Amino acid sequence: MKGIAVGILALGLGLGLAQQAPLKIGVVVSATGPGASLGIPERNTLLLLEDQVNKRGGLAGRPVQFIIMDDASDTTQAVRAARKLIQEDQVLAIIGTTTTPATLAMIDPIAEAGVPNISLAANREIVAPMDDKRKWIFKTPQTEEQMSQPIVQDMKANNVKNVAYIGFNDAYGEGWAKAFEAAAKEAGLNVVASERFSRTDTSVTGQILRILSKNPDAVLIGGSGTAPVLPQRTLKERGYKGLIYQTHGVANPDFLRVGGDAVIGTRLPAGPILVFDQLPSGFPTKRVDQSYVQQYEAKYGIGSYSTFGGHAYDAWAILSAALERTLKKEQPTNLQAFRSTLRDEIEATKGVVGTHGIFNMSPQDHLGLKFNEAAVMVEVVKTPSGKLGWKLIRTFQ
């Protein structure tokens, strides 16, 4: 009888949840194309969270529905997806997209419609300078300014004097070039070469030869996903013996898989989740990192987690808390009023502990992360088992 009663209760709860109109959240990610190694864990994380939330009875008693669209790492498709989610699906908010160029392109239609957006891309220009458009845009990944600091500090510690840069020929690469060159100059480093390449290039020999002619002590590659393996492999094939740095845009298992031995010794800044099991016991995100990785790997396999799934996890942590506060003030039946109040509540985010740091947003800061909580320095190493992995070099606490 007890089992029957529990079953009836569960059925009743399920029926009650099903009768409520779902809270529709739009999601745009790069599940295919050059950004797929970033977008797939983002999508997987949100599918995992949607299932967990609804099994627990939804959010404030309402089911959550993520309407997920793949922009194929294409700017035009990202804009088209955003417009569909806004106009046809009538979503309350949008999470995404994955890459910087596509996110920047989405700002106009999102701002025009007055829909809050939490981006999963890195570039600082997504949220700054603050204006009437960017007031609708928030983000969870660390900026290139924040992540240039640990790179420059590590270069100084390794007696680097002359450095070269090669990055994507788009907003991500240009943002990194600007931020890194400024940080390097302030630290007294000489940037002796600055080259560009496309996410879809199959050869960068010319650019690498020009870099090698300057004999730099270190090279920073400004890219994301697996595409940055190409210039690193070319450097190694041409006999380069100096230090090679990458950005936090490569902190995923596919970079190791594609790069193989060519990426051993790579140094990069990353969110603390990448080396969650090596963090000191008092690190502020360690508990959340451990919990997320355990959940993700239970569903998708051991070793499958990445920092990019963590960005999606953090976006939902911020958005879900803001949704709960908004539902106490407005109802989704008044869509525009709800979206506007939700925007205000996201901006009021305080003390949300995510996988990448503690988020404290404000009208002037739509990221809300402190560098010392959101960045660690890591190195790619070969483990005793012969596999590639990430080794924590230092934290900045």
Automatic annotation (TrEMBL):
Q: Does the keyword Calcium apply?
A: no
- Alphabetical keyword list: Signal
Domain Leucine-binding protein residue range list: 22-366
Is Signal a UniProt keyword of this protein? yes
Where on the tree of life does the source sit, at the highest rank? Answer: Bacteria
Tell me any Pfam family this protein matches: Peripla_BP_6
Q: Which stretches are transmembrane?
A: none
To which protein family does this belong?
A: Belongs to the leucine-binding protein family.
Q: What is this protein called?
A: Leu/Ile/Val-binding protein
Q: Which organism is it from?
A: Meiothermus granaticius NBRC 107808
Q: What is the lineage of its organism?
A: Bacteria, Thermotogati, Deinococcota, Deinococci, Thermales
